[in-house]
Amino acid sequence: ADAPVRASLDDLPIRDDLRGLRPYGAPQLDVPVRLNTNENSHPVPEPVVEAIGKALAAELRDLNRYPDRDAVALRADLAGYLGHGLTVEHLWAANGSNEIQQQLLQAFGGPGRTALGFTPAYSMHPLLALGTGTGWQPARRGADFGLTVDDAVAQVREQRPDVVFLCSPNNPTGTALDPEVVAAVLDVAPGMVVVDEAYAEFARPGTVSALAVLPGHPRLVVTRTMSKAFGFAGGRLGYLAADPAVVAAVQLVRLPYHLSALTQAAARAALAHRDALLGTVASIKAQRDRIVTTLREWGMRVADSDANFVLFEVGGEQSVAWQALLDRGVLVRDVGLAGWLRVTAGTASETDAFLAALAETR
Ligand code: PMP
């Protein structure tokens, strides 16, 4: 008998707006130096491994039961970490800040509505819009990838989006936003304003988190993650801080029991050991500054960075430079920005390897 013909996506009655698309994702290649997804390169310290192991073990007997649907204890811990007078009511958690932002679009975007972002910014924002049927409105950043109050306000006024995404520090450019931009956008935006602060813990002194702007602004949402500074990317824990009404809104669209008992327990154990986990932040920032300084000494254009990565100009076709680095065992990110590449700041020896490979290719 003939083998059954394997169906392709095109054979399925898939949504028209998904037809012909490819799934998002950076290449996961097995190379010695992986600096392409802004992870924390430092492994989880042994005492924290043990603490998380114990916390998980304590949950196992009860895995016959559903977890706390509202993740109350975890949200209280997250509020304690953030400070700013925030409580459990202001916090919400999900499987990564990607899921948080998806829930925000499910609640405040959706068919017939729009979301706006200032590109280049985090490439998942338009993809989350697509997946939730939200129209996407790309807006521009200025020279050197900056975003001024006037530029931001003019574009929000013109497009009147239901959701505005701001990203601070911005991925892939690295620079934190002036809080005046957040305040000005809030003033003119007709809908929600989401500030994606995935990299907040790496900011240079003098930068201000939008958390400080939350009081009295129920249309403002700040999203954070444990994937970067906490080195907990594999644990999948993102969260938001906002007015309690926003938390009530996302509870309308979240799947019941979306956060497993194991995720909640592991994240709480990690938070309890935050000093050990966040202990790597200072050295990562030092590596970031070393990359910025060294590349500028070499005469290259480099964006200022408040994050754990650096955007640099390669001079020429960036995909060629990307491959040349990969050929030398160093994986960086081609974010599709003509002439530029992004490298994650990790350990000192990863910086050594990256700089040596880059020097060879110049
Ligand atoms: N926001 C930004 C700006 C990011 O760069 C990332 C990770 N690449 C995320 C959100 C999502 O991270 P996670 O879902 O792991 O929290």
Explain this structure.
- Pathway: Amino-acid biosynthesis; L-histidine biosynthesis; L-histidine from 5-phospho-alpha-D-ribose 1-diphosphate: step 7/9.
- This protein starts with 32 loop residues before the first strand and ends with a helix.
- The strands form three sheets. Strands 2-8-7-6-5-3-4 form a seven-stranded mixed beta sheet. A two-stranded parallel ribbon has the order 1-10. A two-stranded antiparallel sheet has the order 9-11.
- The protein folds into two domains: 26-42 and 280-361, Aspartate Aminotransferase, domain 1 (Alpha-Beta Complex); 47-273, 3-Layer(aba) Sandwich (Aspartate Aminotransferase, domain 2), CATH 3.40.640.
- It contains twelve helices and eleven strands.
- The protein is of the alpha/beta class and 362 residues long.
- It is globular.
- Residues 38, 96-98, 122, 167, 171, 196, 198, 225, 227, 233, 238 line the site of 4'-deoxy-4'-aminopyridoxal-5'-phosphate.
CATH-level-2 architecture of the largest domain: 3-Layer(aba) Sandwich
> Would you tell me the overall average pLDDT?
96
Largest sheet: number of strands, sense, barrel closure? 7 strands, mixed
Low-confidence stretches: none
What's the alpha carbon Rg, rounded to whole Å? 21 Å
Rough outline: globular
Order of the strands making up the biggest sheet: 2-8-7-6-5-3-4
**Estimated share of beta-strand residues:** 5-15%
Oligomer, anyone?
single chain
What is the helix fraction of residues, given as a range? 25-40%
Number of strands: 11
Give the tally of structural domains.
2
Class of secondary structure makeup: alpha/beta
CATH superfamily of the largest domain: Type I PLP-dependent aspartate aminotransferase-like (Major domain)
Number of helices: 12
Give the N-terminus to C-terminus distance in angstroms.
Answer: 58 Å
* Order of helical and strand elements: EHHEHEHEHEHEEEHHHHEHEEH
Keywords: Amino-acid biosynthesis, Aminotransferase, Histidine biosynthesis, Pyridoxal phosphate, Transferase
Domain Aminotransferase class I/classII large: 33-358
Organism: Micromonospora pallida
Modified residues (N6-(pyridoxal phosphate)lysine): 228
